[in-house]
From TrEMBL:
Pfam families: BATS (PF06968), Radical_SAM (PF04055). Keywords: 4Fe-4S, Iron, Iron-sulfur, Metal-binding, S-adenosyl-L-methionine. This is [FeFe] hydrogenase H-cluster radical SAM maturase HydG. The keyword RNA-binding does not apply.
Length: 473
């Protein structure tokens, strides 16, 4: 039975409830009066339930859809301004004992090169990432309890935080690794991770079991209840997501929102981020053999509806998407993007030889970080390298309450400008620096109060003189 508070996966992601939600959405997809009421409710910026948001997702009335897109854009502006947080993935190991049918790391793939970075290799990769300008990483790994142990992850996190190279430092390490125990989540928290990320892949249990035929990941309940255990272990920033293309997107959308509702109901804090990856070709994976792929129009609608349904939850898009698609959805709700990414184990420091490919999927947006930063600024966005919330302890419900009251803007906007200035001084090409300096000069006048503005101006001046105080709001 559907129960948002239950600890059991099949209660809080209840199949019958999702089917009823989809039926309700279908019945009402042309119900203009109801859709108007839902849009009005969403304008209050307190979000929508999975049922309500599913009606908006199903709606195919042209005029109403235009309103939905406009509202998503407005909510995105109100909560996130024009800032986009930058990050890069770092693949630690592609050893994996699971049998996921969509992922080239599956255990039966004897063709892909298997690699696990040593601590020395991690050092070299991190220095290469720091030299690009990155401050925030998402660690990635396959599931192999013998090779990819918790001790290995903890050592890797320590190594990464300890590397100080020129003006570089990784200041937030997020981690995307297999579902684990409360005790292990506690260890990850103590090691100082930012967000624990785990994609559900699909919320549809029957499909899930077929798509994960072997290995520990086959256990649907253990996987689906992972975020509950992470929260019990003290991790208050968790990132959820679905791999779109595996099952029907409207089912997944309802599941994602029910998961968010469950975390909010059970722990008082919803997910910190939602990722929206789409299935891609990879080593021995042909994405066209999966029949639930979604086109770009549907993808844009999905992003807009997530933005409206959970305004306080950051939304992440990776280099699985092209420049064009990223451009299309950024203003509809994306708050974080990766740039200059490699999905191979190693590959930042030196490109992998063709004979030793270890990539998880084909990167579509292959531009450098400098090119991505420049492109964002040319569109009027402020690429942010800020990690202050995490470092100041503004995580979980403390972050959410600042977000809900709108006060978070007072920190984010100035911090984005100062961290961008540091990036421009340390890593940008002359063209990017010129565009960035002009943008900062303009944007500094949008810092909310005069006192804060003068502090920012003073810090920008110090950064320009390379006399940094590492000051953040
Ligand atoms: N081992 C971790 C786990 O058990 O969830 C996963 C981390 S994996 C390195 C990161 C994510 O990549 C997966 O959760 C999956 O959604 C995504 N992924 C796997 N195969 C993919 C493909 N062919 N195209 C796009 N994304 C893929």
């Amino acid at each position: 039975m559907y129960d948002v508070h239950s600890k059991h996966a099949e209660d809080f992601i209840n199949h019958e409830e999702i089917l009823e939600t989809l039926a309700y959405a279908d019945e009402n997809k042309h119900n203009a009066a109801l859709i108007d009421t839902l849009i009005e409710k969403a304008k209050k910026r307190k979000g929508l339930s999975h049922r309500e948001a599913s009606v908006l997702l199903a709606c195919d009335l042209k005029e109403k859809n235009e309103e939905i897109f406009r509202l998503a854009e407005q909510i995105k502006k109100d909560f996130y301004g024009n800032r986009i947080v930058m990050f890069a993935p770092l693949y630690l190991s592609n050893y994996c004992i699971n049998g996921c049918t969509y992922c080239p790391y599956h255990a039966k793939n004897k063709h892909i090169a298997r690699k696990q970075l040593t601590q020395e290799e991690i050092r070299r990769e991190v220095i290469a990432l720091q030299d690009m300008g990155h401050k925030r990483l998402a660690l990635e790994a396959g599931e192999d309890p013998i090779r990819n142990t918790m001790d290995y992850y903890l050592d890797s996190i320590n190594t990464i935080y300890s590397i100080k190279h020129k003006n570089g430092a990784i200041r937030r390490v997020n981690i995307n690794i297999a579902a684990t125990t409360v005790d292990n989540y506690r260890l990850l928290k103590e090691a100082g991770i930012g967000t624990y990320i785990l994609f559900q892949e699909t919320y549809h249990k029957e499909s899930y079991l077929k798509l994960h035929p072997t290995g520990p990941k086959h256990d649907y309940a253990y996987h689906t209840e992972a975020m509950d255990r992470a929260m019990e272990g003290g991790i208050d920033d968790v990132g959820i997501g679905v791999l779109f293309g595996l099952d029907k997107y409207r089912y997944e959308f309802a599941g994602l929102l029910m998961h968010a509702e469950h975390l909010e109901a059970a722990f008082g804090v919803g997910p910190h981020t939602i990722s929206v990856p789409r299935l891609r070709d990879a080593d021995d994976i042909d994405s066209s053999s999966f029949k639930n792929g979604i086109d770009d129009d549907t993808f844009a609608k999905l992003v807009a509806c997530i933005r409206i349904a959970v305004p306080y939850t950051g939304m992440i898009i990776s280099t699985r998407e092209s420049q064009k698609t990223r451009e299309r959805v950024l203003h509809l709700g994306i708050s974080q993007i990766s740039g200059g990414s490699r999905t191979s184990v190693g590959g930042y420091c030196e490109p992998e030889p063709d004979t030793e490919k270890s990539e998880q999927f084909d990167v579509v947006d292959t531009r450098t970080l400098d090119e991505v930063v420049c492109w964002l600024m040319e569109m009027g966005y402020i690429p942010s390298f800020c990690t202050a919330c995490y470092r100041e302890g503004r995580t979980g419900d403390r972050f959410m309450s600042l977000c809900k009251s709108g006060q978070i803007q007072n920190c984010c906007h100035p911090n984005a400008l100062m961290t961008l200035k540091e990036y421009l001084m340390d890593y940008a090409s002359p063209k990017t620096k010129a565009i960035g300096d002009a943008l900062i000069e303009k944007e500094v006048f949008n810092v909310p109060n005069e006192k804060a503005r003068s502090v920012v101006l003073e810090n920008l001046r110090l950064i320009e003189q390379d006399n940094r105080r590492d000051f953040r709001f």
